[in-house]
Amino acid sequence: MTEKERIELSEILFPNIKRTKEEYEKIYPERNLKAGAMVTRYGPSPTGSVHLGNLFSAFCDMVYARQSGGSFFLRIEDTDQKRAVAGGVENITSVLKGFDIIPTEGYSFKGEYGPYKQSERTEIYQTYVKDLIVKGFAYPCFMTEEEIASIREEQEINKTKIGIYGMYATDRDLSLEEVKEHLANKEEYVIRLKSPGDPNKQIEVVDCIKGKMKFPENDMDIVLLKKDGTPTYHFAHVIDDHLMHTTHVIRGDEWVSSLPVHIQLFEILGFNIPKYAHIAPITIKDSETGAIRKLSKRKDPWAGAKFYEEAGIPIKALHLYLATIANTNFEEWYLNNQDKTIDDFTFSFDKQAIGGTSFDEAKLTNLCKTYFSRKSGEEVYEETLAYTEKFDPDYNKLLKENKEDMIKFLNIEKDVPRPRKDIAKYSDVKEEFSYAIDEMFKQENYAKYEGEKTYDVELIKDYIEVIDLSTTNEEWFNKTKEFAVENGYAATPKEYKKSPDNYKGHVGDICEALRVMITGRTKSPDLFSIMKILGKTRINERIELYRKYSNQ
Ligand code: GLU
Q: Residue 296 C-alpha to ligand 1 middle, in angstroms?
């Protein structure tokens, strides 16, 4: 076709497209950002619930944009309406907000580069396709599904590449008259790329994470616009990333194989090519087969975004975990920098894992514990209150009624070089501090930690008599030792070990007995602090409870 014919064809196919691409270039001007600022985007398809892998990719978009003073936007990629799920879009925005991964602009957020939903941008895509038709880089293809299927069969038999390209792309050279005939017959058509690629030539791409990669040039005449005039993902994202001025496309590495197509589209459209950063999937060792596989929502509870909220894993602690997946040097940095938060860390693509990163529950738990250990009692209280409001209303009520005490308990051993690391999630507070609230302190608490031993109630009663709760920790411990010796116990475990026959036990046994009686547990934060908060009356009530429990 001559250029004149192609112009005529473009008008026949897109009579309603009146704007030119130049107009769109003006509507979406360059962003006014400082040098080095990254513009990233999260482009989910609303096809169902959000996966940890999606959150991870959005997290990367957020941190890279934020630290460089750029922009991170949310774009809903709903080009495949067949796969769209009712409520899918709302779910994405609410999960992002719930996970504190907040785009600076985009769908349901403000922004100058919208609409940020691809189904609302059809006219824009058609404008660019119309222009490609004029330039000879796109054409209408009238092949039927049956024709395509039979080509595929032939290609399978001949073991050649599957798809519509070269000799198989029979409609790429139709004359204007032939196209008109097809249209007059009311045949359905798609618009295909007229690929200028030569698969015998290579292209080189430098991925920010994977480094230099080489591919044969694309020669597939991929579909740009479907029969209904809406774009494919390949085409839509190229137009959008250009007009929205994305600088870094951070996405799952399942897209690496599409890179030659995408690069070619950017080139023929005359756009600058953004930088690509393909991130590895989050993998897991299958508990049954032992094989490394992708995290699966069906098999692994932690693959779904909802799991974290329900389990009571703090979002900020999950961010720490995502940061350890993002950059291999993050964890060490965080553990060695007590006073720093994630915002003080500089993420870099060089430190991003190239292969799949294995999901590590133990690491997540450890980071959560570190997170809690760095929070004040007040903060842990407030956050637990918010969690229980939704997930444990009964406990929430008790927490509110016992606020003052609860905060005191949560503050034990906080102001020390190595703060306690006993809580990994909000739901742990109830169990770990089961002794903090009188209404929750029942005889059953003892049964839970039941061991072989029965502790001597009279001995502990006598002990409480002589203890002064207003002294210092040191004085208290000296007094405890004194009491131990007076009652036939060794003052130290070491002494006891030297000649066990001379003693009933050692000072630690007295503390253990008291601890069990007043907390129902064999392990607890600093005992004297707990005693001080409870006071003698409540301590004695609990000793009496233990007396009943142990039939003494
Ligand atoms: N819509 C694509 C997906 O859901 C996004 C890929 C991209 O970020 O370019 O996988």
A: 18
